DNA sequence: ATCGGTTTTGACAACGGTTTTCATATGCGG
DNA sequence: CCGCATATGAAAACCGTTGTCAAAACCGAT
């Protein structure tokens, strides 16, 4: 297991993610980099996001239309998200009771190796204002 | 708002879903129908699943790879699923406490029009046995 | 029963996000 | 500074899904 090479593109993608406090798609991120004068290829953006997601550096979320959205989170542990469906702004939330509930449900029905996905979607205060 | 016509294909898709107590993809369902001698087109299967999902007759779930999985549920109200990641077998579960928690989290952060997605994945007893 | 219109069907093409390909470029250890 | 394994990126392939459109089927009215 070798460490990834330190390339300009990798640094650029990471920096863009760090500056973006919301869930963004690979294509949107690519667009931002292009607009910023960085000639990073779309394929490269996808590859870095994939690697970052694999090692837990970024969290991944599936939008309704199937697009994958990425975001760097402050909390590196297990947590969930409260996401604005309009602008992607998100808040990290924890719910210990929910975790316990999920495990209990699984045990009751004989399921092993339990995981769960949980996301809360809504309209954030800022977007509520803009939309009346 | 007119009722959908009663066609052989619609009946066939519904019957196939009723006989399948697990989440299946549109393509898998199409394969089953083909194997059963029914010449139902893939497009038609997609259209019916779409319509059934829209009126709440079937529940939809996104697999990790982005594929949509469908299933007819006994409980027509709001509920979640405990799903076997190997065979798709699923159990319907309810968690009133979770619902309240989600709403409270949203309110605390000024989010409106709250919805949430929650699925529990695991390996069911039957698949655990097969896989040792 | 049959006619007429409206809806449904299904083979095929198009779509869109993501992944693969592969030749070139570039970190980086020796 | 070399050597070479890894990274890059344009273009093509992939794959689930949706749009197209002419032919077929449903169903109320005659």
Q: Which secondary structure elements does this structure contain, and how are they paired or packed?
A:
2 copies of one chain form a homodimer.
Chain A: H1 8-19, E1 24-25, H2 26-35, H3 42-54, E2 58-62, E3 68-72, E4 80-84, E5 90-93, H4 96-108, E6 112-123, H5 125-131
Helix pairs in contact in A: 2-3
Chain A binds a DNA duplex (30 and 30 nucleotides) through helix 1 and helix 3.
Let me know the number of strands of chain A.
6
Number of domains in the coordinates of chain A?
A: 2
Task: Just name the CATH architecture of the largest domain in chain A.
Answer: Orthogonal Bundle
Q: State the fourth-level CATH superfamily of the largest domain in chain A.
A: Winged helix-like DNA-binding domain superfamily/Winged helix DNA-binding domain
User: Biggest interface between protein chains, with counts per chain?
Assistant: A-B, 31 and 31 residues
Low-confidence stretches of chain A: none
Q: Give the biggest beta sheet of chain A.
A: 3 strands, antiparallel
CATH class of the largest domain in chain A: Mainly Alpha
User: Major sheet of chain A: order of its strands?
Assistant: 1-3-2
The percentage of residues in β strands of chain A lies in 25-35%
Oligomer: homodimer
